[in-house]
């Protein structure tokens, strides 16, 4: 019996789990709940991301996840291209975006190509298309947020993070989902350095080692639960 299945519900497309430790349905919602609370133009300006990325930058979020960081960046004022290729995640994101269009603010955000674009594909594909273009046609910033285990006492261990962790651990063959190509974090990082015209920003656990041994970050900014390593290009 599959552990996960996408299911259409009255509230929208949801992910159904048969795992005893994660029972029920998960519905990605940008308007309500924990994500809805954090995704407001006023709140995002106080988020750590707002302190490491220029609010007028063109940013490619290579690891979309549930879409939180990509949407925060767009709400800050950035032009955002967000990528997520996981076959359980990108349909949830697309459905959440569609449902959020009823809100005038989100409608303006999602229907304005100079503010936000979502790509349900591997970020490597996007970076490769931009790699050899003139500087003015490439993004200012490439952002990477590699998946890492949340600390047991961390405020990040919420329902969303539990589901995200389980999704990334799913056996796609067993659950009858088409496998997708996973580009390694280090390969994405190398492409990012060649594509970004100003900086690459990598999110890490606060006390974790750097993503790669070399090059070392030009500088880092540490916060309570995470650190942002900045590589100037």
Describe the protein:
There is one protein chain. The protein is an alpha/beta fold. It has a single domain, classed as Rossmann fold (3-Layer(aba) Sandwich). Helix content is 29%, strand content 21%. It contains 8 helices and 10 strands. It has helices at residues 33-38, 41-44, 68-76, 90-100, 104-110, 123-130, 159-169, 185-195, and strands at residues 4-9, 12-17, 24-26, 58-61, 79-83, 116-119, 141-144, 199-205, 219-222, 226-232. A hairpin with a 3-residue loop joins strand 9 and strand 10 (226-232). Helix 6 packs parallel to helix 8. The protein is globular, with a radius of gyration of 17 Å.
Percent helix, as a range, is 25-40%
| CATH architecture type | 3-Layer(aba) Sandwich
CATH superfamily: Vaccinia Virus protein VP39
Number of domains: 1
Number of helical segments with 4 or more residues: 8
Largest sheet: 7 strands, mixed
Instruction: State mean pLDDT (0 to 100 scale).
Output: 90
N-end to C-end Cα span: 48 Å
- How many strands appear in the DSSP assignment? 10
The string of secondary-structure elements, in order, is EEEHHEHEHHEHEHHEEE
């Amino acid at each position: 019996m599959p552990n996960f299945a996408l299911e259409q519900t009255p509230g929208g497309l949801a992910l159904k789990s048969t795992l005893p430790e994660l029972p029920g349905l998960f519905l990605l919602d940008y308007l309500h709940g924990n994500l809805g609370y954090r995704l407001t133009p006023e709140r995002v300006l106080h988020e750590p991301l707002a302190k490491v990325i220029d609010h007028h930058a063109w940013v490619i979020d290579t690891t979309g996840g549930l879409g939180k960081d990509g949407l925060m960046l767009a709400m800050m004022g950035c032009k955002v291209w967000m990528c997520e290729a996981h076959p359980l995640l990108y349909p949830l994101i697309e459905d959440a975006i569609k449902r959020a269009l009823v809100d005038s603010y989100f409608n303006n955000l999602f229907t304005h190509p100079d503010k936000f674009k979502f790509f349900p594909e591997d970020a490597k594909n996007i970076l490769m298309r931009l790699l050899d273009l003139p500087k003015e046609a490439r993004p200012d910033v490439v952002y990477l947020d590699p998946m890492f285990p949340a600390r047991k006492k961390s405020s990040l261990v919420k329902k969303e993070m539990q589901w995200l962790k389980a999704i990334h651990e799913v056996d796609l063959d067993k659950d009858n989902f088409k496998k997708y190509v996973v580009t390694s974090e280090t390969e994405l990082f190398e492409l990012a350095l060649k594509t970004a015209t100003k900086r690459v920003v990598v999110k890490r656990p606060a006390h974790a080692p750097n993503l790669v041994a070399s090059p070392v970050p030009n500088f880092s900014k540490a916060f309570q639960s995470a650190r942002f390593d900045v590589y100037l290009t």
